[in-house]
Task: inverse folding
């Protein structure tokens, strides 16, 4: 019992530490990559190649004055960043990093991820409301509508994978993707579930509130959206949450569609991290490339294109399973 | 061990539910409601019904309450306070207390504990199978119900054509 | 209790499937061709008619000698004469409401396609209530019906009273559904079953004075009390009846009440026959309160829709008498009464719509003034409905009351019968006041009536039903009797 507990605590500490470290350097990566795409250097002054920039940023944020606006709802104002940050971290509890390296394997793992993931929106909505500022409120409302709308497509897009695996456990899903077709193609879900994969990537981008779906914080219209009134560590929490979510979504995409840790030659964990890195790079690339949607386009696209496509994918997969079985 | 967890989760659920009905600020009530729903999900998990627990969070917390908040935020201001404790409070407390007392009495005297709990089984596939066999008719009827409700919501919410 | 899904079972619910398809077709049509109002109306009428034909076809083997009732879908759906009787009542009611609505809806500015679609979905819910062999399917049928009716009540978006009606009905309905669910969950906790037969079998082996069991019974009584609008759970009824569009009010009064009665009979007789003594006592009190308060308050109404609301409450009180009697005679009298009530009340509401024109809303009792001199035929029709509602021969209302009171006396509920007779005398007062206004008062200048043909058809149908059952009740009584066979333990 004690040993089991200790092992669990160790695993949790390891994963949390790594995620937080990754989050810190993800900010640097994003600035560097976007800089490169825009033919700039990005941060380069603090340390060699700007490698100490995240630490400098952290220290700066820590020492900023912590402001709570006079007419804000104090309790919820303080509470919101935490609500935003915690779900982003506890999603990692069920992600399999390697053949035997998962904090806990529960048989409804995927549902757990979605359940916890759906809590994240509260951070943004409540922050927007509690700030008592019209920009924040608009940002919060937009994000509530956007995230609820795209959550449907997101959930439906992975149903195909669940139907093919016959399990909601992420460990089972990864294990079902071992081996090859005809000796060349890896048995990854991305091949039979390509439509589901595309829908998943688009809707998760919207769930992350990242460009081109960054309407909740559209700086040209809403100053900074829901976190306009936030400063210091509370602001940093939103920032951390956004990047932690990005890693979580990348890890989930890897697990569901790219065979998780499966891969030849290299050790499993390395494969996993490589694939996650690939997705993160993709998210940054998309942000640097695409302009922002208009609000009605965003809603129309989610409800009239993605949702029917996701439903069609579910029907098609079910039919295919019935015919092939 | 499980009993301890149960009492902690149950106390949490009841306490947050009390907050829902006593907060003068309706957004605070909604936030308390989130926690209460999470507590209910916790009880489901303790009963080895993980699927129900996850779905409880997904639907009630992730779906229904967020729409509730959405509606509240569109209609009320931050400083809006509702007078929860009005003159009807004594009466309603009496009725609610009476019903609670009756319920507690009836469950204590009327319901026997079935003995040892059966070993936990994985509920998700079993539920799926039941929905497609024994309960297929109510399941399909619910889809009609939801369709009618959606059509109705759209009619009531859409703008009149001039 | 895991069952299997037998695709052949679908053939047994063909009427429901057909109705669903038609309702969906109406939705699609109203979206694809919104200007073709006629098509939608024809489709709605055809839908109800076709469902009725399919239903009769399914009923034929049951009424042949040796036709045994059976259950499909793992006991979720019962095919018996009881269900078919009620479904016929629902379909007749829906047809009458559609006929009333055809020219009424454009007049009040209601979107036609969605109205008929939701009306048919509601009817579908009722049909599943009448056939429900399981508390789950019964409850979902009930919710399907109720949610559709909440929407129908609020169709007049610009009208504050319609909004109020929808909101009030929604809140009270949701609350009462919650109470019913509480009762169902207690029953499930006690018996481990949702199937009506299994619940009954499990209760038979229990200590019948178990407080949890009695609590479940009280919860179900209160919940269904709301749904059938029995006093003291009736407070929302007058406002809802007044605010809702009149066609919806008619639907609410005849179809929804009938469905609630069907579900009440199914649940109490099917699942809890062993504690009949206990619930009979509760319903005795409810019955007396319901008819007395309904009739007394009805006297004070100026608005005819409110008056009919209270009169409807009083009639539910009469229906409960048959239920309290609990004998085969009593229950078959309930069935007959529900049918009779559908015709006469549909007629009364059709009269309100008849008076509704561009300028006059027609829902005040004064609006009937002088109808007797100016439009003698319309006034005569109204007189028939009023006489029937009072229970005066040779109308159907008399037959209905006669069998209900007879069943009470037969089951030795003398007091109940006496109170009911006194109540009938009270009701004479306010029904005849309307007749008096029609015949004794001067008509306002320029009294016009609606010129809607389908409405005339509905009125004619209602008069016909009221008179035929009144003069020649034999076959209808036989039908009601045959329909309760096997329902009682």
Result:
């Amino acid at each position: 019992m004690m040993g089991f507990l200790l092992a669990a605590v160790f695993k949790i500490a390891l994963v949390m530490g790594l995620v937080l470290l990754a989050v810190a350097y993800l900010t640097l990566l994003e600035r560097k990559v976007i800089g490169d795409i825009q033919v700039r250097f990005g941060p380069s002054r603090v340390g060699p190649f700007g490698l100490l920039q995240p630490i400098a940023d952290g220290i700066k944020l820590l020492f900023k004055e912590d402001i709570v606006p006079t007419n804000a709802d104090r309790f919820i104002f303080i509470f919101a960043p935490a609500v935003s940050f915690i779900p982003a971290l506890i999603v990692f509890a069920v992600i399999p990093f390697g053949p035997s390296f998962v904090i806990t394997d529960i048989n409804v793992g995927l549902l757990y991820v979605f359940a916890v993931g759906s809590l994240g929106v509260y951070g943004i909505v409540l922050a927007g409301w509690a700030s008592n500022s019209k920009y924040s409120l608009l940002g919060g409302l937009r994000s509530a509508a956007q995230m609820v709308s795209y959550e449907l497509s997101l959930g439906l897009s992975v149903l195909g994978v669940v139907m093919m695996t016959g399990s909601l456990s992420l460990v089972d899903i990864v294990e079902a993707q071992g081996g090859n077709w005809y000796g060349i193609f890896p048995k990854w879900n991305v091949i039979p579930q390509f439509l589901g994969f595309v829908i998943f990537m688009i809707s998760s981008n919207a769930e992350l509130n990242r460009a081109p779906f960054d309407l909740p914080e559209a700086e040209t219209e809403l100053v900074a959206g829901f976190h306009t009134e936030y400063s210091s560590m509370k602001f940093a929490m939103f920032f951390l949450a956004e990047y932690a979510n990005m890693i979580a979504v990348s890890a989930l995409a890897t697990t569901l569609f790219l065979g998780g840790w499966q891969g030849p030659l290299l050790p499993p964990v390395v494969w996993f991290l490589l694939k996650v890195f690939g997705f993160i790079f993709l998210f940054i690339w998309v942000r640097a490339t695409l302009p922002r949607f208009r609000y009605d386009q965003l809603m129309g696209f989610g409800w009239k294109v993605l949702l029917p496509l996701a439903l069609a994918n579910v029907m098609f997969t079910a039919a295919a399973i019935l015919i092939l079985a | 061990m499980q009993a301890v967890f149960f009492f902690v989760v149950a106390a949490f659920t009841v306490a947050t539910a009390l907050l829902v009905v006593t907060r003068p600020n309706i957004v605070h009530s909604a936030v308390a409601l989130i926690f209460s729903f999470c507590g209910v999900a916790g009880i489901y998990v303790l009963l080895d019904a993980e699927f129900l627990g996850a779905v409880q969070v997904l639907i009630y917390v992730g779906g229904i309450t967020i729409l509730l908040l959405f509606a509240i935020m569109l209609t009320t201001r931050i400083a809006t306070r509702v007078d929860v404790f009005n003159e009807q409070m004594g009466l309603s407390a009496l009725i609610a207390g009476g019903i609670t007392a009756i319920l507690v009495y009836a469950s204590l005297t009327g319901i026997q504990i079935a003995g040892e709990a059966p070993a936990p089984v994985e509920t998700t596939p079993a539920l799926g199978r039941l929905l497609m066999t024994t309960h297929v008719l109510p399941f399909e009827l619910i889809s009609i119900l939801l369709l009618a409700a959606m059509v109705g919501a759209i009619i009531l919410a859409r703008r009149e054509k001039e | 209790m895991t069952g299997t899904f037998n695709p052949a079972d679908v053939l047994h619910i063909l009427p429901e499937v057909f109705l669903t398809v038609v309702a969906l077709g109406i939705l699609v049509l109203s979206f694809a061709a919104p200007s073709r109002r006629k098509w939608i109306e024809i489709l709605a009428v055809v839908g109800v008619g076709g469902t009725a034909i399919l239903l009769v076809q399914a009923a034929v083997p049951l009424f042949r000698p040796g036709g045994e009732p059976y259950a499909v879908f793992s006991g979720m759906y019962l095919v018996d004469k009881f269900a078919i009787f009620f479904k016929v009542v629902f379909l007749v009611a829906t047809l009458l409401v559609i006929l009333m609505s055809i020219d009424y809806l454009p007049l009040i500015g209601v979107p036609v396609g969605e109205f008929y679609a939701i009306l048919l979905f509601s009817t579908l819910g009722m049909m599943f209530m009448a056939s429900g062999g399981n508390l789950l399917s019964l409850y979902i049928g009930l919710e399907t019906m109720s949610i559709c009716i909440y929407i129908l009540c609020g169709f007049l978006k610009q009208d504050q009273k319609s909004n109020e009606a929808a909101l009030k009905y929604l809140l009270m309905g949701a609350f009462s559904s919650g109470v019913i669910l509480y009762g169902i969950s207690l029953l499930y906790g006690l018996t481990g079953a949702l199937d009506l037969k299994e619940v009954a079998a499990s209760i038979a082996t229990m200590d019948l004075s178990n407080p949890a069991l009695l609590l479940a019974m009280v919860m179900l009584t209160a919940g269904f009390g709301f749904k059938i609008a029995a006093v003291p759970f009736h407070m929302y009824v007058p406002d809802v009846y007044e605010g809702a569009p009149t066609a919806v009010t008619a639907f609410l009064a005849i179809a929804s009440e009938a469905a609630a009665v069907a579900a009440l009979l199914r649940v109490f007789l099917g699942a809890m026959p062993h504690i009949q003594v206990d619930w009979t006592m509760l319903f005795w009190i409810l019955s007396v309160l319901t008819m007395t308060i309904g009739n007394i308050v009805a006297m004070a109404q100026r608005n005819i829709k409110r008056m009919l609301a209270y009169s409807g409450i009083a009639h539910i009180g009469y229906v409960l008498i048959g239920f309290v009697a609990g004998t085969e005679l009593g229950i078959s009298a309930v069935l007959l009464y529900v049918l009779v009530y559908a015709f006469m009340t549909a007629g009364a509401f059709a009269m309100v719509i008849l008076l509704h024109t561009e300028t006059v809303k027609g829902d005040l009792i004064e609006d009937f003034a002088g109808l007797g001199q100016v439009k003698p035929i319309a006034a005569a029709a109204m007189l028939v409905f009023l006489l029937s509602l009072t229970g005066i021969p040779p109308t159907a209302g008399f037959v209905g009351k006669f069998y209900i009171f007879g069943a009470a006396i037969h089951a030795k509920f003398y007091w109940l019968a006496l109170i009911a007779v006194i109540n009938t005398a009270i009701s004479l007062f306010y029904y005849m006041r309307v007749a008096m206004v029609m015949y004794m008062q001067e008509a306002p200048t320029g009294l016009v009536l609606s010129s809607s043909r389908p409405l005339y058809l509905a009125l004619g149908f209602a008069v016909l039903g009221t008179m035929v059952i009144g003069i020649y009740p034999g076959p209808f009584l036989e039908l009601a009797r045959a329909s309760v066979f096997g329902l009682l333990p």
User: Anything to note?
Assistant: Residues 2-87 of chain B form a domain with the Four Helix Bundle (Hemerythrin (Met), subunit A) fold (CATH 1.20.120.1200). The radius of gyration of chain B is 20 Å. The interface with chain A takes residues 25, 27-28, 31, 34, 41, 50-51, 53-55, 57-58, 61-63, 66-67, 69-70, 73-74, 78-79, 122, 124-125 of chain B (CB under 8 Å). The mean pLDDT of chain B is 84.
